[in-house]
Design goal:
Layout lengths: L1 E3 L14 E5 L8 E7 L2 E10 L2 E4 L11 E11 L2 E4 L4 H6 L1
Antiparallel strand pairs: 1-2, 2-6, 3-4, 3-6, 4-5, 6-7
Length: 95
């Protein structure tokens, strides 16, 4: 599924207006996951742990539970260009 990105929670990797390709697969630490934070709020945040599932924005601010996990980001589209999600993103986001 493709999900539009809004906001700055993973800036500079993601920009407002990018579109994320989300794969339904189990989360792994270091993945960027799309989670439902509230009934009307989706977020693409870094998976910090999986048991229990914890995620955080790029600034390190943790998300409050409960989280509804929708899938992990595997690619993104900026304009007409589709790119695979960069493998170096997890260490860069943790830094």
């Amino acid at each position: 599924m493709w999900v539009p990105a809004r906001g700055r929670s993973l800036w500079p990797l993601l920009r407002d207006g990018d579109v994320l390709k989300v794969e339904r697969a189990p989360p792994r630490p270091g993945d960027v996951a799309v989670v439902k934070l509230r009934p009307d709020v989706l977020a693409a945040h870094l998976v910090v742990s999986v048991a229990p599932l914890r995620t955080a924005a790029s600034n390190g601010r943790p998300d409050a539970p409960p989280l509804a996990y929708l899938g992990r980001v595997v690619a993104f589209r900026r304009g007409r260009v589709v790119r695979a999600w960069p493998g170096w993103s997890a260490p860069a986001l943790r830094w």
